């Protein structure tokens, strides 16, 4: 079933409204080719991301989570992305330790003009999440719990 | 730990009261059952004789500081003093409002371990005497010597900061438990040898036992939030009735929330009434923090808290 | 409530299970204030709607499906049994979800629970209703009950206040009662406000100005805890004895039937020994906890 | 009727009883012990010689349970109650303190509106008690009308004597169960005197005492004494251990969960020690810790007795002392409640 090429992973993208969100928008309007399986949640800054959001997304059944913010040094609020980076790093490492595949927790820096990069990130993230298969982590009976 | 320490502590506390340096002192007194101690609030020099120092001073008393009014003295082992420093860094406690009475710690005895080793419960043991590298356990006519390393709490075996660095008075000479990092981290290392699936299965099984009594959180000196995310109702992050999924989310988020503030004092694991190996979570986080950010909780009160600071270049390998 | 009335109620339990709500349908939604709405609803099962009875002062447990259950008094009068009414303020998860429901939506209801206003002992008495904010909801059930049997009661004074004109609940009732010349209706707001020509002042103070006579009278008080705490002394000043003061209390509740544990004041459970209490029943008991 | 059975035959006895009953025995679950379904074979649980960590109440009042589920179809919401577990239960090896706690829960869940979930699980349950040969140093049941061999709340009382178990039929139901099982032999005079001395030996081991003389009145006398309760509460961390693991605590929370378009209403253990337990939007009557600790102590030693004919809802099982992460000691608190005020103003 996991090998089924039809299966498209559901990914939740937390995108900073000052950069990655606009980058994704640009990727869309300029008709870049990239997998259309990301649900996007606009956040005011990558610094708004809480590890709890990532866990909750996985608990809800998303197969992967992407947090994307401004490049280091470019944060609209100066340091939000630096703070996000620490949080994401700890979360990713820790989740790996308890048995969540690191491919499911992804982060990127994508600026408002980097439509190509956003498309590329989406592509790569989708590919990696696809490799680890549907998220059945939180299900009681091995079923995907998306619903 | 010896009787002289205890006598010195009582003398010191009396002096603090007489010199009006404190309004109260938080310390340990003999607990209600064998081989236990319990936190006590001493309000005057006469009461100082209730204070004890022994091999069973388990609680991290820093927990009691946050809501205390007045100038408080506090008895602190190495890990406790670091928790106090964490609280100072988080502006939960003012350094000038507390008098830290440091107690060099040579490791705390885990009576549960002795129990398992000799097959008797604590109240069936008559005496536990600490010798240099061993403890002598007497139970009825039976006497058994157990290697000290095997009966100390696992977190003590990795504690290289056992003499409080941040303190106003130090009772006695610096001391250290016998260090054995391999033994201390054995459970974590074992876990890391497992596959991701096995690890997840392991935690799933552990979390099925959790009743959400929140003892782990409530004894944690750095879990001082007035309202924990688990109690939020809008949005409601986790279900109210316990289930392994949400129990695990609670523990994972708690581990992340205490990152950089947890001193591996072992309070959470000790508190768990259903024996979930919580230290295998928070200690791992402790090590991740150390490896990635070279940060050890509660070692410098003038440092910014871990999560309030950053380096411009770090952890970039994890980001696309 | 007595044991016999509990067994009487049992016919209303689905499958003999007191915790199962009955499905009801919202018939009408009225905006009372920016944060308070009144919902008119009926049992989906017509038989239940016909057989359902309750007393003024009783409460129910309301389910918003998919969200949860919460406790509110029934704000309509048993003398008008065509439908039930509940007024609720948007304050938490369930009430917020409740406010998102419109006409035709289904809710769950179980009840009625708790005791009620001692309607028989009020007969022939002069009644002084003192209410604040949404605290008028339970009083309103009794007020209409009394007005619908007007000849059985003596004088009626109503002192009702809210923070501002916009916060006054049941404005249509206030108007009706003002026009009723057998009722002395006094409405007040806490602070002066533009366009408000009525009285200004906190309820306990206004009550003292209105100065209803304690002779052959009973005062029935409901409002925010702080108002209740100040109203009792005000009534005492006017000569009311604790036995002449009645209030209805609000507590966090879950089961509504004295099992889940959280609503007690000492050995009294607000859900089954209350919510209606005479002041002399509670005045010596942990005043800070009610 | 007093019978005895060899330890080796207990398995066969349980197999026999299992034909009519669902058997629950003390079981290990990781680090802890609790009552769980007997696996039908192993009698290794007999080596659990002390009371279970989780009280026996969890069989009837589990840590969480489904109350009902609901789903919306074209005609509106439909409710579904989980099917009743019709089979009868037999708890093998319940300790006297936990059995007496069940008697209290029976009253609380039955009084007024009946609680169908508890009562349905509890119905037709046979309790086979087990004498505590090695009570804990935290046990104080003898101060509360109980004892390690107390048999008043069980159907059969069982005591290990050497490698045999002596079973006393207490209720008619118990007598019936003891009759006609070939693994039993009649206990002799000598057996009964051995039984008596074993029970006396157990009784002597309980040394912890709590002064319950006039306790309800004494509590009411100090009920408004903030300082007393603050002192009692000082080290409490407000976790739920003492209440969750108390055999007589029965508070619960009700909450809804949504999964795949179905709503499930659940109830789960709740604790008066949690600040959110009584929290209302605008205020919380038990925001302060001392009020919550007072609630716990007073509920057991004053309110419950007031409501239910003087019964103190503490059985002295000692779990709250053993399991408390800061070793809070209820016996010390009760013993520190001042003597009754003799010059009563009332």
Could you explain how this protein is built, in words?
The complex is a heterotetramer of chains A (147), B (320), C (290) and D (346). Chain A has 147 residues and is α/β, with parallel strands linked by helices. Chain A has one domain: Rossmann fold. Chain A is 39% helix and 16% strand. Chain B folds into 2 domains: 274 residues, no CATH class; 43 residues, Nuclear Transport Factor 2, Chain: A (Roll), CATH 3.10.450. The N and C termini of chain B lie far apart (52 Å). Chain B is an alpha/beta fold. By secondary structure, chain C is an alpha/beta fold. Chain C is built from 9 helices and 15 strands. The longest helix of chain C is centred in the C-terminal third of the chain and has 13 residues. The chains are: A alpha/beta (147), B alpha/beta (320), C alpha/beta (290), D alpha+beta (346). Chains in contact: A-B, B-C, B-D, C-D.
What's the gist of this structure?
The complex is a heterotetramer of chains A (147), B (320), C (290) and D (346). Chain C has helices at residues 3-9, 46-51, 93-99, 119-122, 136-147, 171-179, 203-210, 225-237, 279-282; strands at 22-31, 36-43, 59-64, 68-73, 84-89, 106-113, 126-132, 156-162, 183-189, 199-200, 217-222, 245-248, 264-265, 268-269, 276-278.
Helix percentage of chain D: 25-40%
The major beta sheet of chain A can be summarized as: 4 strands, parallel
Tell me the number of helical segments of chain A per DSSP (H or I, 4 or more residues long). 4
Could you name the CATH class of chain A? Alpha Beta
- Given helix and strand content, the structural type of chain A is alpha/beta
Put simply, the count of helices of chain D is: 11
Largest inter-chain interface?
C-D, 46 and 48 residues
How many strands of chain D? 12
The domain tally of chain A reads 1
Q: Order of SSEs of chain D, N→C?
A: EHEEEEEHHEEEHEHHHHEEHHH
What separation lies between the terminal Cα atoms of chain A? 18 Å
Shape of chain A: globular
Stretches of chain A where pLDDT falls below 50 for ≥5 residues?
none
Topology:
The complex is a heterotetramer of chains A (147), B (320), C (290) and D (346).
Chain A: E1 11-16, H1 20-29, E2 38-43, H2 51-60, E3 64-69, H3 80-98, E4 105-109, H4 115-132
Parallel strand pairs in A: 1-2, 1-3, 3-4
Helix pairs in contact in A: 1-4
Chain B: H1 3-18, E1 24-30, E2 37-42, E3 72-76, H2 78-89, E4 98-102, H3 111-118, E5 127-130, E6 134-139, E7 142-147, H4 148-151, E8 169-170, H5 181-184, H6 186-193, H7 196-207, H8 215-219, H9 244-257, H10 267-271, H11 279-293
Parallel strand pairs in B: 1-3, 3-4, 4-8
Antiparallel strand pairs in B: 1-2, 5-6, 6-7
Chain D: E1 2-6, H1 10-18, E2 22-29, E3 32-37, E4 64-73, E5 76-80, E6 89-94, H2 96-110, H3 116-122, E7 126-130, E8 156-161, E9 164-169, H4 172-178, E10 185-186, H5 189-204, H6 215-222, H7 226-233, H8 241-244, E11 252-259, E12 262-269, H9 289-307, H10 319-323, H11 330-336
Parallel strand pairs in D: 2-6, 6-7, 7-8
Antiparallel strand pairs in D: 1-9, 1-10, 2-3, 4-5, 4-12, 8-9, 11-12
Helix pairs in contact in D: 6-9, 7-9
